[in-house]
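Quick note —
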Amino acid sequence: MAGRLRVASDVGGTFTDSIAYDEGTGTITVSKVSTTPKNRARGTVDGLRRAIALAGADGRDVGYVGHGTTTTTNAVIQRKGALTAFVTNRGFRDLLLIGRQNRPTLFDLSVVRPAQLVPQELCLTVAGRLGPGGVEIEPLDEEGVRAVAAELAARKVEAVAILFLHSYANPAHERRAQAILEALLPGVPVCISTEVNGEFREYERASTTVLNAYLRPVMHDYLASLGTLLADAEDGLGLAGDRPVMVMDAAGGLMSVESARLKPVHTVLSGPAGGVVASAHVAGLAGIDDIITMDIGGTSTDISLIRKGRPEITRTNTLETVPIRLPVIDINAIGAGGGSIAWIDEGGALRVGPMSAEAVPGPVCYGRGGTRPTVTDANLVLGRFDGESRLGGDLGLDVEAARAAIARTIAEPLGLDLVAAAAGILRVAHANIVRGIRVVSVERGYDPRDFTLVPFGGAGPMHGSPVARELRMPRVMVPPTPGILCALGQLISDLHHTFAETRIARWRPDGVSDALPAIRAQVDRAVRHLEADGVPAHRRRIEVKIDIRYVGQSYDLPIPVDIETAEFWAGLPDRFHAAHRARFGHADPSAPIEIVGFVVTGIGRIDKPVLPTLAAGTGSPAAEAVKGTRAVHFEPFDPTAPVTLHEAVVYRRDGLKAGDVIRGPAVIEEISATTVVYPGDTLTVHPSGSLIVEVAQ
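Predicted structure written out below.
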């Protein structure tokens, strides 16, 4: 049956994960291949071909492709975007350079500011001015815009970003300048701030617009390469031209390829978003609504908190000191992954990360030329991996090389034996992750003990129990195909279009007559975009939030509302005070509040895969699920106690049945990840396929 497969791929720093879901049979096949840094589209297609082949199909059977990519994130980190110019009002040439005057390291006299995305000589100005209400104070100098175009052509710029003050209230000047520059600079993308982020705060709006322009040529080239390989029947996938291809955005939604080309800034920080969305979905199938996700890949650990089945969304974030003002899943990323390098600092202390061995050369045990030990090497030395196992199904591991590297660079300098040094590497990595989890939980008023830890990614399930134990979290849930969960998220996520508009005004009981037309205009805009994506009316959902703050405050809180209810406006003050108290621990119901703006999200619901339900077991794993036993070293909870050696039973995850109970120590192996059950822990297989681990405290 043509089009029966829904496939997705997620490109990470070390591995590219792919999944194929057969809508006819409900079966899932997965693959994990090494990321190809020189052309990430190549690894994407190779992984998809492997997953599709395992399903007994080919590219002609594919009806849908989802894709998550780190292309834009890497371009910013490595400063490999387009040569970009910035055009703004006369007198504001240094807007990007001045920024917000933040001082992350207040007393460090040797701080060197990172290079700006736009060199100062390409920050240009023109005359013209709008007031805060959008009223024209000075006409746009169109001849000045043409002079700017001539200079940019001479400098051979590759992209242009335009921001004029108060354009969020009246985009006329930006649109006219855009039209002139596009006519005089053919082939050069010209981005205006009101099309990227129609909110006040000129610095964040400028930064986000510049970032979008900086990434437009990069994303265009990448998607063109990906599209060519997807369509190529011989060297690629052979995908039919009418099959939809969707790209993951940073808010956990999907966007069309054309939207991704025009607004690539929405894909920045999107790498971990798919895993968060999939975690919420899979946890819901197991009856768990409040979770903390821990996505451990090769380079980083991405942490997010989910309450009542919904990820937390923020509209303020940064990447490599570049502010971004767009909806983004609230994720705390730290430099602690399977490829994080262990090293000794100048004070003689053991450190892990943030430097990573990445895909090339990778950990020492990969045999690709790496010489510095990593978390993966430590896990191998401690027996968490079988020395004969093959990561992703085909990557062999060199145990002796890992032993030698840890002994030479960690054990001998610290005067430790090999096992103690390897266990120390894990302890330091776990401490880094625990601190990261406290940032999204304790520091925001949430008790981790009220949540279930959901580890995923290729390395996540190996570290779930010790991290949960450190935080006194009672339970760990390992989802199905944990190493491929980000790719699964692209089959579960819906289409998203979010629009924000600034409308600053004090809240008045009769103010609804002014607010409602503005909100409905944004609702209509969202509906038009969903219509353009071909989403039928019965699959559309509109969400509205109103940004509110106390008069005199600098920052606001988003309050969800249902504009179809008569009391939505009258109830805003009480809802805002309650939200402020929950977020900051205090509220002042007697203080006046003001509306800052409206945020409307149009959601196009897509069909979700029906994940297979496991057959019921007898309570004990069947004999065919047992692979054997292996000597595994475990570091005890007490850091002063010695590492202990246990004979752990090794199970094949695909042989486990619903209701099977496993008591640690044990190891559960599958193609995408390995789950380690510590001594004293009890694992129960849920009918949804998740592994529920009760953590011994």
